[in-house]
Amino acid sequence: MMDxxxxxxxxxxxxxxxxxxxxxxxxxxxxxGLFNVGLAGFVAIGAYTSALLTTPDTTxxxxxxxxxxxxxxxxxxxxxxxxxxxxxxxxxxxxxDYLAITTFGVAVVVQLVALNAxxxxxxxxxxxxxxxxFASLAETPLLFNFANLGVVVVVLLIVYLxxxxxxxxxxxxxxxxxxxxxxxxxxxxxxxxxxxxxxFAVGGAIMGLAGAIQAHFIGFIAPDNYVPILTFQIWxxxxxxxxxxxxxxxxxxxxxxxxxAGSGALTSVLFSPEQQARAASLQIVAIGVMLCIILLVRPGxxxxxxxxxxxxxxxxxxxxxDESNAAS
Length: 328
Fold this sequence. Notes:
328 residues, mainly alpha
C-alpha cells in the first residue's frame, strides 16, 4: 500500500513538471497565438543550464560550479528566456507554419549541440550527479517523493497565479487582442512584434524552469530526453486541457500523462519482452484516440474558452417603459 502511495506521488510530480511546459506553451499559443513546435529545445536549455551551475566540478567538462539548486533554477529561467527572446526577435515576423518550421529547427539544433558538444554537455553520455532536493530522504522513497511533490506544487502554484495575473492585466489583454485581430490592435498603437517577443520569452523561461526542475528531480539528463516526441506530448496536453486556459493546461497534463503511463504499463503486462518495442507505439495510438474523443465531445478542450450560453431570461426582450410613467 505504501508503495502505491509513493508511486502516486512520483506520478503526480512527473505530471506537474509537464504542466510547467504546458503553461509556457499556453502563454505562447493559447494567449498570443504563436505556433511554437520547438519547445523541447527550451526545456533542454533550462535543464543543461541548471545542471552546469549546480553539479560538482568534473574534469573534462565545463561547468561544475556547485551552486545551490535555487540558483540553478533561476539561471535556467534567465538563459532560456534570453534564448527565446533572441529567437523571437529573429523569427516572430514569420506566420503560422513558417514559424512552426523555424522553431522546430531550433529544437533540432539544440539537441544536436547537446549531443556533440561533449565538453559542455557531456555529449551522448549526458550529465549525472545533478543534486536532488531532499537527497537525504532518498533512502525513504515515500518521504522523498512527497517532499519533491510539495516543492513542485508550491512552485507550480506561484507560476500559475503569476500567469493568471498576467492574463488579466493590460499586458495580457493586448496579447489576446493581437491573437484575435492583429490589425485592430496595431491601429491602437500597440507593437505586435514587441509584445510577441515578450510573450515568447516568458513562455520560454517557464519551459526552461520545467527542464531544470525535471533535471533535479531525476538527477540525470541526456540529449535523448529532449526529442520531438516531447513536443507532441505537450501539444496534446494543451489541446486536451483547453487552449487559452491555465487550469486546462494543468488538467490536460495530468490526464494525458496518466494515459501515457497507463498504456505503457499495460503493454508491458500484455506483451512479451520481444514484442514490447513494437507495442510501445500503442501509447501514441491511445493518445490519438483519446484526443479524437475529447475533441468530438469538447472541441475547445476540457477547460477551453467556450462561448457562454445565454439563458432564456437573457434572450427575452426587455420591456419598454411606459411614456406616461417616464414623463412622471
